[in-house]
Input
Amino acid sequence: MKMAEELHQVVAARQCQFGMPRLDRQNAEIRGAGLFVGVELRHGGQTGTPATAEAARIVNLLRERRVLISSAGPHGNVLKIRPPLVFGTEHADLLVETLDQVLAEASVVSEK
Output
């Protein structure tokens, strides 16, 4: 349990450090439990339409960069991040930096 709490703190700290400015917090809800993190993407805020195509594009762009996550949820608009137990600080850095680059390239989750 302690390892999961530390990982959550590391990922949260990296998100704050890098700012993740391209992940519009009004259009994305971040939640997690233990090692699992979910980022639900929607157009037009939390009550907007699911950003299914954008989630798929993010997953594919990350895969091209050797970062593996998946999408989940009834609409496929939740980025599902399930790191392995050997996930360390350097991996959290890589995940957050690469995700920020992909979000910039994809120009995703804009208001519709």
Observations:
- Residues 19 and 100 are 9 Å apart (CA to CA).
- The mean pLDDT is 77.
- Residues 2-106 form a domain with the Aspartate Aminotransferase, domain 1 fold (CATH 3.90.1150.10).
- Helices lie at 2-18, 52-64, 89-106.
